[in-house]
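Question (not urgent): is this output format expected?
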Amino acid sequence: MARSRLTPERESELYAAVLDLLREVGYDALTMDAVAARTHSSKATLYRQWGSKPELVARALRHNKPVDLTEIDTGSLRGDFQALMALTDDCQMEKDTALMRGLAHAVHDNPDLHRALRELLIEPELNGFGEVLARAVRRGEIDPGNPALELVPHMLIGAFVARPLVDDQPVDHAFLSAYVDAVVLPSLGA
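Got this back:
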């Protein structure tokens, strides 16, 4: 696919519009027609650049990630977690959490979306997170045989899902910081 025809600015503009539409109408109601109208582009251009709605959505989400997790290395696992949390503010975290909740629901009925999200968003994030944890193991902060190592993504995703359900509150820095200190780090023996 020849993505090079779009300038980086135009690509960013398109991705921002896709995320805005996703927040407004949800995945199922999001159409390539709506994206084309919102971005003053043609549907043919969108399909030529991205091939499908799942691919466009997954790439928009990936583009929205400000940094590669493997670039975060503060010298301690707790510091790395704090640096990760510092990448976003509470308002953006709430918007992103709502967006991901909607997409988590949509993947059940859309195997192509699930595949695109896994390939373009989830696996790179898990790999980056795995590297953050591997560095903590190499530094001696975590026992390499600790069974909780494999469950860290599940713990963190669980926090994002459970907080609104249990407390009727959005996930924010204060909650996430307390959760990491009380649940994640102790389970890792860090």
